[in-house]
Amino acid sequence: MVTPLIGSPSPRRAPLRTLNVSKRPRRQRDGRLRYTPRWSPAQTVCLAFIAVITAGSLALMLPISSNAAPASPLHAVFVATSAITVTGLTPVDTHVAWTGFGQAVILILIQLGGLGVMTFTSVVGIALTRRLGLQSRLIASAESRTVDFDDARAVLLSIIRIVVVCEAVAAVVLYLAFVVGHGLDPVASIWDAVFHAVSAFNNAGFSTFEGNLVDFVDSPWVCLPIALCIIIGGLGFPVIAQILKFGPKWNRLSISAKMVLTATPILLLVGMGAFVLFEWNNPQTLGQYDFGTRMLAGFFQSVQTRTAGFNSIDFGALHPETLLIVDVLQFIGGGPAGTAGGIKITVFMVIAAAIVAVIRGDGSVHLFGKRIHDAVVRRAAAIGVTALGLCVAVTLLLLVVTPFTIEQVGVEVTSAWGTVGLSTGITGDLPPVAMIAITLLMFIGRLGPMTIAAALVPAVRPLPYELPEERPIIA
């Protein structure tokens, strides 16, 4: 027997759970109401990304985009998806395969992916109409993951200011480093500096240099600005906005900002410690450099595992234990509502806090003196389990259809899920079915499994009553 909630409709009424809220009624000529489909914010975001991927793929397939033969549809879709999801995985070398036009297409896709297609569209709409409708605010909130969509306009404008300032400063510093510090061509370095600044802030990992950033492994003027851009972009726009507004006033920050600012340095130190500890004497990675370069490379590579994807050392030569730490860091990712991917730091910390609460026998989950809502805990658990299941499934698929080891496949899969872009060098040798699986994983990893689920499953109203409660045996 069910127990009706206070204020709930009579059981004799039509069940509300069958009402699809993604539809709105329209009165026909005969006077009857007919429900017509309306795109939900999640569906709109997904379709926008698909549309941009399609346009980017077609642009990359043009003869003007390639230095050799035009790109195949599979390679074009893979690279376009990697760029719009700010991943960085690519089956071909960016500096070799693509012309200046092709690289410009990739850069535009990276910028759109970092800002978010719907965020970018909404900002353009603000500039043209000076107002933002309710539906547009819902869409912008779904993309930028803001809590209060009434503030979407201010959030979007803040995002633009932050992006422009960070990328412009990084481009200037990198240009001076390329020209003054390394004697590169002053004209060509303009494009290289802009490309790497945009790629770094958006956590993409695409590079116009042969071997990515291996030639700059000992250059702090190149590595540190790129690393700083990656960290700022990975914090997430809401966290950056709160830092700019409240400064060092810790008590004024939201719990999300506290979680990100607490976990980020810890994860960076864990990653740096793993690289330095396991690769210190590896002659193919850190072992060939002096003390200062080893520490710089260890820190730089730790930053990259937070969803950036640049590499200043040969990633294919890393020890298996280092690759395992890389897998974990890539899976976690960065802060929410930013350019980073992964399950996000907030999800990781909520799951960790829930485990601690269960061990201690607490009735609720607590973080930073606040009680975490049960719905948030359930959502975090759902995201974590779904992400783990997807990664395991794609890993199993790649192990079946490719000759690569589990270490190599693990890095490729978690890199795609976390939209990182790091690889042991197997991307170009993947068969078509594996490339399709990685492409889908990049897409899901960028938008999030819950957004994809919300786009595929119609939203329904909750049941107007509670079902009987029973507790199964949990070991």
List the helices and strands and how they pair.
Layout: E1 3-4, E2 23-27, E3 33-37, H1 41-60, H2 73-84, H3 94-97, H4 100-115, H5 117-129, H6 134-144, H7 152-181, H8 188-201, H9 220-235, H10 237-246, H11 255-279, H12 291-304, H13 320-332, H14 345-360, E4 365-367, E5 370-372, H15 374-401, H16 406-417, H17 432-447, H18 449-456, E6 465-466
Antiparallel strand pairs: 1-6, 2-3, 4-5
Helix pairs in contact: 1-2, 1-4, 1-6, 1-18, 2-4, 2-17, 4-5, 4-8, 5-6, 5-7, 6-7, 7-8, 7-9, 7-10, 8-9, 9-12, 11-12, 11-13, 13-16, 14-15, 15-16, 15-17, 16-17
What do you see in this structure?
A hairpin with a 5-residue loop joins strand 2 and strand 3 (33-37). Strands 1-6 form a two-stranded antiparallel ribbon. The protein has a two-stranded antiparallel sheet with strand order 2-3. Residues 1-23 have low confidence and may be disordered. It has 475 residues and is mainly alpha-helical. It is built from 18 helices and 6 strands. The protein has helices at 41-60, 73-84, 94-97, 100-115, 117-129, 134-144, 152-181, 188-201, 220-235, 237-246, 255-279, 291-304, 320-332, 345-360, 374-401, 406-417, 432-447, 449-456; strands at residues 3-4, 23-27, 33-37, 365-367, 370-372, 465-466. Helix 2 (73-84) runs parallel beside helix 17 and helix 9 (220-235) runs parallel beside helix 12 (291-304). It starts with a strand and ends in a 9-residue tail after the last strand. Helix content is 59%, strand content 4%.
